[in-house]
Design brief:
- The structure is a single chain.
- This protein has 74 residues and is an all-alpha fold.
- Helix content is 82%, strand content 0%.
- The longest helix is centred in the first third of the chain and has 30 residues.
C-alpha cells in the first residue's frame, strides 16, 4: 500500500474513532440547549430587521405561483 492510501486509511480510522465521541457531544449540546431563550433572541433579531423593511403591497404568493407554473411547464 502506498503512503497516500495509507494516509487516507489512517484518516478514515481517525474519523471512525471520533464519530461516537462527536455524537455524544452533539447529543449533550442538544439536550442542554435552551430553545425558548434561543427563540426569544432570534425573534428580536427578526423584529429589528422587519422594522427596517418597507411594507410590501402583496405577499408574493402570486409571483411564487408564476414561478411554479414555469417550472411545471418546462
Amino acid at each position: 500500500m502506498n503512503s497516500e492510501a495509507s494516509a487516507i486509511n489512517n484518516r478514515i480510522a481517525q474519523w471512525a474513532a471520533a464519530a461516537p465521541i462527536l455524537q455524544e457531544v452533539r447529543d449533550a449540546d442538544i439536550r442542554s440547549a435552551n430553545t425558548a431563550r434561543s427563540l426569544r433572541n432570534l425573534a428580536g433579531t427578526i423584529l429589528q430587521t422587519a422594522a427596517k423593511m418597507p411594507v410590501r403591497s402583496s405577499s408574493g404568493l402570486v409571483e411564487q405561483q408564476r414561478v411554479f407554473l414555469k417550472i411545471r411547464s418546462a
